[in-house]
Model the fold of this input.
Amino acid sequence: MDALEAIKGRRSIREFTDEPISKEILTEILDAARWAPSGGNRQGWRFVVVTDPQVKEMIRKVSPGIFALPAAFIVICMKKKAGARAWDEWLYAADCGIAAQNIMLAAFSLGIGTCVVASFAKEALREILEVPEGIEPSLIVTLGHYESLPEAPERKPLKEIAFLNRYGEEWGQ
Ligand SMILES: Cc1cc2nc3c(=O)[nH]c(=O)nc-3n(C[C@H](O)[C@H](O)[C@H](O)COP(=O)(O)O)c2cc1C
Done:
């Protein structure tokens, strides 16, 4: 599968089969995350992979954005400097989002469905996973085998969201 196929074909999956994901596949997905770009190449992310059924259930209970129990979660955490400035906070968020996309595209190319989830109780998740101070759980990616891909939610046309040279000047397609 080439990159464009993965980018356009990936969908948020919210229904999974019970099949577990092999350690080899999870490792390959984590490796794709490791190769994500990060601001100043700081690589401040830390990835907690959760496959234990009891821990998964605890995570689901504190995450209104999770609709089905997947085979695994990857919780993307970020190492944060004490007293981080708004600029650093912005870079942290960008780094996590980009790593999440690498995870989702790699997973999709390996036949695994995913959904990125931002709706969860951060402090509760920190306690469940015993994440130390100075590191913050930032995003959850659910991962599992799936039976079918949902229909693609509509995307805005380029002419509405892309401009040429100046904001508001038509891209023209
Ligand atoms: C930052 C972010 C947070 C999201 N949070 C959730 C969430 O909490 N629960 C959920 O089911 N989907 C979540 N999504 C998935 C979006 O709803 C989904 O990407 C969007 O509807 C487009 O569908 P697609 O991913 O199939 O193209 C999130 C996506 C992003 C980028």
In short: The longest helix spans residues 86-109. The chain has six helices and four strands. The longest strand covers residues 135-144. The pocket of flavin mononucleotide is lined by residues 11-12, 14, 65, 67, 115-119, 153 (CB under 6 Å).
